[in-house]
Amino acid sequence: MSTQVNFRSINQLAIPATISGIAEPILSITDTAIVGNIPVDGLESLAAAGIVGSFLSMLIWVLGQTRSSISAIISQYLGAGRLDEVKNMPAQAIFLNILLSIVVLLTTIFVIEEIFTLFNASGKILEYCVSYYSIRVWGFPLTLFTFAVFGIFRGLQNTFYPMVIAMLGAGLNILLDFVLVYGIEGFVPALYLEGAAWASLIAQAIMAILALILLVKKTDISMKLTFPLNKEIKRLIFMSLNLFVRTLALNAALMLAVREATTLGDRFIGAHTIAVNLWLFAAFFIDGYAAAGNSMGGKLLGAEDYDGLWKLAKTIFKYGMVVSLALMCIGFILYRPIGHLFSNEEIVLNTFYSIFYIVILGLPMNTLAFIFDGIFKGMGEMKYLRNVLLAATFLGFIPCLYLGMYLGLGFYAIWIAFVVWMMIRGFSLVWKFRRKFRPLVQNP
User: Fold this and answer.
1) Where are the membrane-spanning stretches (predicted)?
2) Helices and strands counted in the chain (H then E)
3) Contact residues for 403 (Cβ-Cβ < 8 A; gap 6+)
4) Average pLDDT for residues 81-101, to the nearest whole number?
5) pLDDT tens for residues 200-230?
6) Which of 3, 44, 270, 285 lies 20 to 30 Å (CA to CA) from residue 74?
7) 441 near 310, Cβ under 8 Å?
């Protein structure tokens, strides 16, 4: 089964994936604004929503790695023309994923107060954390299910349906936020923070239902659980475990950065929060092309089309660089207005402006890392991805961070460490890709 590697085929996957990706940060920003303006205990509600949201995001980020594993296996079998051999695997993988999420749900639901006490929540904030999490946690299995279905679609070279589901879910969540948080006089009582939790839960349920309907109606993938287990389930579990370890290392770097910024003082953690949000927002734009590399890379590898795979890597990197250079230009032109979107505190903004050029100049390196990260996931090279991130974090980011602190670089040390982190990730992946596939390419 041939795969065309050109502008149209790549952007058919990349553009919907980009739109789907940026729906999440836009939703988070809107949620924060709505909760932060609650007329009763708005500050405490915002703090509780932030703490619970961070905890749930960490769980989803760590346990949602099955999506990439499913996508890799399906795309490879699709490219090899043997999709029938793994048609029963997605249902088995989703069942294991949901079973794991229910275990996490039941494990945490009875110790909610103890969990958020570890986050230094107390008093009214702790009380709000408990009530908010008690509702939000039931959406955890629904989100993991939706993520897994997105992985199936991505493996089938389809990022359009995940985009539709993500946009509808985000729009519904925002609409329900306004209705349930603030209420409609005479019709719907204002539920405040609990209203935001119900809005998220309802939106997650609708997204899961839509994902299931589209999967059943638009694909030949069966959701009927059958036995024995597919031969690829073992590989899927090991790939997911490697990504699980990788995600822990990734979170270690992000959390250490937050910790050191907090230690430096309030203006530094405020500036760091702005910088990280912009860094992640830019990543979602580039990640659309990484998603295209994920889908097409697995299919080309399955078809043993090494010339196509080599062309894909070069082409998709070129498109990603165009996006990152455009973001750099926008950043340099609009960095002051962008800062004011997040804060009006001059001391915070001046601290942010002092390191913003490092964030901007690092975008091409981020592109290199993210693009090849997506291609390697599509090829199922999760073990190598794990080892690269472990090395980048513990041999690159952490030594660079604390060496910079020792030399008195302060806030600059954090963002210099981020650049070093991404350099190690990007160059390691390019080196491996060239070493493995250059000898197999007939027309490089």
Assistant:
1) 46-64, 93-112, 132-153, 160-184, 196-216, 236-257, 269-290, 316-335, 355-376, 388-406, 412-431
2) 17, 0
3) 413
4) 87
5) 899 989 999 999 999 999 988 888 888 888 8
6) 285
7) yes
Percent helix, strand and coil across the chain, each to the nearest 5? 85, 0, 15
Contact 332, 393 (CB under 8 A): no
Distances, alpha carbon 444 to alpha carbons 262, 309, 437, in Å: 48, 10, 10
Q: What angle do CA 248, 122, 177 make, to 5 degrees?
A: 75
Is residue 24 very low, low, confident or very high in pLDDT (cuts 50, 70, 90)? low
Handedness of CA 417, 353, 270, 177 (dihedral sign): negative
Task: Give the orientation angle of helix 411-437 with respect to helix 382-391, to 10 degrees.
Answer: 150
Judged by average pLDDT, the poorest of 250-254, 314-318, 432-436 is 250-254
Average pLDDT score over residue span 328-338: 85
Cα-Cα end-to-end distance for the chain = 21
Length of the chain: 444
Token reading at 159: 């990022």
Cα separation values, 193 from 82, 83, 124, 126, 130, Å: 49, 46, 12, 13, 11
Nearest to 137 by CA among 251, 24, 59: 59
Question: CA–CA separation, 36 vs 44, rounded Å?
Answer: 9
What's the pLDDT score for residue 376? 93
Mean pLDDT over 317-332 rounds to 90
User: How far is residue 124's CA from residue 180's CA, in Å, rounded to a whole number?
Assistant: 21
3-state secondary structure of 219: coil
- In 3D space, the residue among 44, 59, 7, 11 whose CA is nearest the CA of residue 295 turns out to be 11
Average pLDDT, the chain: 85
Say what the pLDDT of residue 259 is.
79
Q: Is residue 405 within 8 Å of residue 260, measured between CB atoms? A: yes
Asked if pLDDT for residue 343 goes beyond 70, the answer is no
Cα dist. 141→79, 96, 119, 172, 318 in Å?
Answer: 30, 11, 23, 19, 37
The DSSP 8-state label assigned to residue 392 in this structure reads: I
Structure tokens at 408: 């008195």
Write the burial class of residue 25 (CB in 10 Å: 0-12 exposed, 13-18 middle, 19+ buried). middle
**Tokens of residue 144, six digits:** 């993991």
Mean pLDDT, residues 406-411 taken together: 91
Distance, CA of 431 to CA of 421 (rounded, Å): 16
Predicted confidence at residue 444, as pLDDT, reads: 63
